[in-house]
Amino acid sequence: MAYASTPRNEISVEPRYLTDDQLRRAIEAVFFSYQRIFYDPDRILQVYGYGRAHHRALHFICFRTDVTVTGLLDLLGVTRQSLNRVLRELQNDGMLDMRIDTHDRRRRIICLTPRGETLASELFAAQRDRLRKAFRQAGSEAVGGFRAVMEAIAMGEDARISGDLERGS
Amino acid sequence: MAYASTPRNEISVEPRYLTDDQLRRAIEAVFFSYQRIFYDPDRILQVYGYGRAHHRALHFICFRTDVTVTGLLDLLGVTRQSLNRVLRELQNDGMLDMRIDTHDRRRRIICLTPRGETLASELFAAQRDRLRKAFRQAGSEAVGGFRAVMEAIAMGEDARISGDLERGS
DNA sequence: CTGAATAGGTCAATAATATTGACATTCCAA
DNA sequence: TTGGAATGTCAATATTATTGACCTATTCAG
Prior knowledge:
The structure is a homodimer of 169-residue chains. Chain A has 169 residues and is mainly α. Chain A has one domain (17-154): Arc Repressor Mutant, subunit A, CATH 1.10.10. Chain A has helices at residues 20-39, 42-48, 52-63, 69-76, 80-92, 114-138, 140-155, 159-162; strands at 96-100, 108-112. Chains A and B meet through helix 1, helix 2, helix 3, helix 6 and helix 7 of A and helix 1, helix 2, helix 3, helix 6 and helix 7 of B. Chain A binds a DNA duplex (30 and 30 nucleotides) through helix 5.
């Protein structure tokens, strides 16, 4: 017996693309895409003795200018303790350059060293090929739609803050 | 200094939507969408004492008919040992019903009990709202493009098998 | 100047999820 | 009957994450 939760289109209020089945497929699409995109760089990470947490941090440090620790925390959605382990390891390996912000000396601006930049570009290259192929295959218009939907998904309020998951404060 | 890896559109061979910057945005879009979609059900899981691993398993058991353990392993991309922990817990709580396949008695067909079905629909409902809103906002055409790109991404070979990550066999 | 708030770092304990490796059973198929 | 497929399990370990408790700087408002 298939799962159903909304009353069956009684007066067909919902357009076809908003059925539970379509939404379920979208959930799975995001799941599988995530799998594909973030599994590709694994073999490179393995060489360096890193994991996906390092990759995620490197990515945002690479592509955001003047990231601070708090900025990174917001992007990654993890605790400071968790992030700091990763940053410590990357810094010890000479991948990162953390310097004090001149405008606010409490802040640290995180940058990549040349070594870090090399690694980040290796990782990006590993992901790029799959994506480029998919984009080319789907075509320009589809990519526009893809982007519109993705932005709309990300737009909504953050689940980590909205709910009563955060019991403190 | 921003990162660049492909030679700058010398004769503009690449369409605009295939630039490194667009591909980078797509990677982040998948990352953030995954975050949003799979953080939403967390507070429900917490009530049951489950984690995201349980959610993923429940999802596919709910929406695939006649899933076997191997089928689930392929979908989830984890090891048998990892999956079995989750299945054991779900079964002990009366969420699952595993019965032997009559055609091939080595296989187990995994189904949801009514309890499991209730939980799965709660979890799905938690994800559905965000998605429906995003789809409605983006519109029918955009959703078509979204689907095309997602399918193209998932289409490519599986990173877990293609590389030399799997050293055995 | 003082105190609150912000930004950052760290120690310790623990949890969730995952891995590798080794074995065992049951069952299908050639 | 033998090989392999499907499943389950024990044990050890790794990765990533958490909560909770402290700590130092620095900024900023009063």
